[in-house]
Specification:
With about 210 residues, this protein is mostly beta strands. It has no helices and 18 strands. The strands form 6 sheets. Strands 5-6-7-8 form a 4-stranded antiparallel beta sheet, with no helix packed on it. β1 and β2 form a beta hairpin. The chain starts with a strand and ends in a 9-residue tail after the last strand.
C-alpha cells in the first residue's frame, strides 16, 4: 500500500489531502486464525480500512486505527481509534477521531494504557503523544513541545515513555512520565567505546 500526503498551501488555512493508492483497491481488515489451520475469522469493524493496529500484551484486546471509508481511491481526512476484544465478547468502542496517517498504537506492559502519536482534526500539523485508558476509554494529550514526536515506546516497568522526537535538523531520545510533566534527554554511546554524545546531537538517521 502506497500512501502520499500533499499539503494545499494556497488555502488561507492550510488543508490536508490524503491520497492512498493500491494495485488492488481492497480495504484491509483484521481476522484471527489458529496456528493449527482452519479458516480465519474476521474480527473488529467490518467497514472502513485498518491503517494500523496493536494487540494487547495478554492477547485479549486490539487497538486499531480505522479509516472511515473502504474506498482506497477517496481522500481521508479523519480516522477512528477503536478498541475491541479479540474474541468478539466486547463491542467495538470508538475512543476518538484523529487526522491523517498516525503512528501505530503502543500498549503498556500491563495492558491498561496505550499510547500513539497523532493529530486531532482541529490541526493536522499538531502531532502529539496521546494516551488512552483501555478500561475507560479516557483520552488525554500531552502538552505541545518544541520537538515533534516520531516514535514512542513504554518503558519496561510501564511507568514512563521513551520518545524519539525531531526539532529542526536534530533528533532527540528522551524519557518522560505518563503525564509528560518531566523530561530527561538520554545519551547514546557511539563507537569507539567511551565516546558519548547527547542523543539530541546524534541519533536520527544514524542507526
Amino acid at each position: 500500500l502506497l500512501a502520499r500526503r500533499s499539503a494545499l498551501r494556497d488555502e488561507p488555512e492550510p488543508k490536508r489531502e490524503f491520497i492512498v493508492g493500491s494495485e488492488r483497491a481492497n480495504p484491509r481488515g483484521l481476522a484471527r486464525g489458529s496456528v493449527l489451520g482452519g479458516a480465519p475469522q474476521p474480527i473488529g469493524p467490518q467497514d472502513g480500512h485498518v491503517q494500523a493496529y496493536a494487540v494487547s500484551p495478554d492477547g485479549s484486546q486490539v487497538a486499531a486505527i480505522m479509516a472511515d471509508s473502504d474506498q482506497l481511491d477517496m481522500g481521508w481526512t479523519t480516522s477512528r481509534v477503536v478498541l475491541f476484544a479479540v474474541d468478539g465478547s466486547v463491542d467495538v468502542r470508538e475512543v476518538t477521531r484523529i487526522t491523517g496517517f498516525p503512528g501505530t498504537p503502543t500498549w503498556s506492559p500491563d495492558g491498561r494504557p496505550l499510547a500513539l502519536i497523532a493529530s486531532l482534526p482541529a490541526d493536522a500539523d499538531d502531532a502529539r503523544i496521546r494516551l488512552i485508558d483501555a478500561a475507560t476509554g479516557e483520552f488525554t494529550s500531552f502538552d505541545a513541545r518544541e520537538e515533534t514526536p516520531t516514535w514512542i515506546s513504554f518503558t519496561d516497568d510501564g511507568e514512563g515513555l521513551l520518545v524519539h522526537s525531531v526539532a529542526r535538523q536534530w533528533s532527540r531520545l528522551s524519557r518522560t512520565d505518563l503525564r509528560g510533566a518531566e523530561w530527561e534527554a538520554l545519551e547514546v554511546e557511539i563507537d569507539p567505546p567511551g565516546a558519548r554524545r547527547g542523543a539530541s546531537q546524534f541519533l536520527g538517521g544514524h542507526g
